[in-house]
Fold:
Amino acid sequence: MNVLTRWSRTPGAAPAAAGALIAAAAVASFSAGVNPFSSSHAGGGAGTTAALTASHVLMTTAAVVAGLPILLRAVRALHHRTVAIDLLVSVAAIGALVIGEVWEAAAVTFLFSVGHALEAGTMNRTRSALAELVAAAPDVAVVLRDGKQVEVSSVEVAPGETVLVKNGAQVPVDGVVTGGAAALVEASITGESMPVEKTEGDLVFAGTVSSGGVLQVRATGVGADTTLARIIHRVEEAQDAKARSQTFLERFSAWYTPAIIVLALTTTLVTGDVVLALTLLVIGCPGALVISIPVAIVAGVGRGARDGVLIKGGEHLEVSARIDTVALDKTGTLTEGRPHLTDVVVLAPGLSRADVLTWAARAEAGSEHPLARPVIDTASAEGLPVNGLPERTDPVPGKGIVATLDGHRVAVGNLPLLTDEGITDDRGAAAEVDRLAGLGRTPMVVTLDGDVVGVVAVADRVRAEAREMVVRLHDAGITRVVMLTGDNRRVAEAVAVDVGVDEVRAELLPEDKVAAVMELQADGRVVAMVGDGVNDAPALATAEIGIAMGAAGTGVAIETADIALMNDDLLRVPLALSLARRTVSVMRLNISIALATVGVLLAGVLAGGVTMAVGMLVHQASVLAVILNAMRLLRRRDDGAGTTTAPRTARVTTTQAQPV
Structure:
């Protein structure tokens, strides 16, 4: 039985063997000068009789070889109280053998097994993205223990241990770089083929490969806790998940199959024509209908995985195809989520931009405020002397910082800090602060020994592809793009003008974002929420579809979102929605092909013009058609670059609450 089971579960074995036997039977019949596909043969000599006998035996053997796996699947289905389409084929083939129609039996089983093999092959092909991810999982790691390099299994690395990643090696863990520098190829995680430079403080992910340099990495995630492991788990779940229409078709098949069997029995009782009844059994098999949905879903999910778009399952593909409104978080989604220095305004005569930036950066060197880093980094990048710490640093909570540098008193902060410093002449600093704040930036006044010398400003930079993403969403049929942000109104409005969204709702708490999504839904809209999966988690869960940005950087996104984008490329949002619409279009076409084929064949059988073999041939051709149609989804498709358009005027709504 184990041999039979293995045979039945090897999709290509049965049709290959059966095809060879049918070919041999045809050769034997032709050598006798008779038609191998006819059940009636004229008598002949001993040689002809032997050839016909050999052909008959070979055809019968082909039917058994191809039909045995089908029968075993039917029996297993019955064991689970399921009447599958395999039962229809099994009954039809056995009946054909009983009445001596060996060619029909061989044709039925062979063609059905070919369709099964093609379906299995397509499923395996669409799962290749998962296979590539599994292959990317590293097996060994070089760990520094007691100053020595020790090679261990990657799952034996303990969190907190230091792992050494050499040139050409795979990163075995998720972690933070603590030393060294290297370029990593992160294609297995983000889909990007270009190497990414990694230095101290950068995050790295298991499965990425060093293309030059050596890194010391402090392990933060090992084994099943790595980003790669979560990706593999999510893809497995996605490809096993079922769409609502797929479940409907399976329920339909459960009723349809017994109905066809009853129809065949009734036909036999009424007409006494067993061949007609068996033909109805074969023609009525809804094979193409049953596989039309799952093959499209698996192909769509597989294409998405290859493009760095992880989709939980078929249901989410179907819902995504109906999306007409996209809600976007700002920080970390439309913007990079990291502050950058944007402006250095000189207000004191005799000083240069470099002077103002140098004083500000040297003062901020002693600060722990997150806005200090972009000032220091910019000054360092421009070659300004910012090394070392101030002689004294005094943080002023809520206002800024005051530092002593080479005997000079330097203050960096907001306008109220000027009052604390006793400065009455701001040299126009208030006007600059107001101007920069209106542009969505955070300004900081710089003073030197009691005099205002300038203003520096930082801002979260809008992603380069943000405007293009909004254009592509509109081109794809999304009628409304809304920004939901906890930031203040002026910042939100500035970003909205830059990006071109239709509407902005600012100063929202997490529960306010949920309320905004629900309000859109109450207006009859189908909403997709795009966020980082942390503060946006409630809104992601409330929307019909939650899309998480930057899943390679947060495990929460992979675990909670319906769709996770494996890097921070916003253009994958319209790509994901376009893929969903293409997949649903393929589903509908597949169903149309399947239903039309069954309807035409049944009419042909009742009219007397379609035989069992011809009907099965056409039926399996329809199975092949829906498989090939679904395979179109596997091809990479350029969804078109949107064209830059004039900025849209966004409608701004503010909720009075503390920004998040």
User: Anything to note?
Assistant: The chain has four domains: 2-126, 140-227, 241-331+463-660, 336-462. Confidence is low (pLDDT under 50) at residues 639-647, 654-660. Residues 23 and 58 are 9 Å apart (CA to CA).
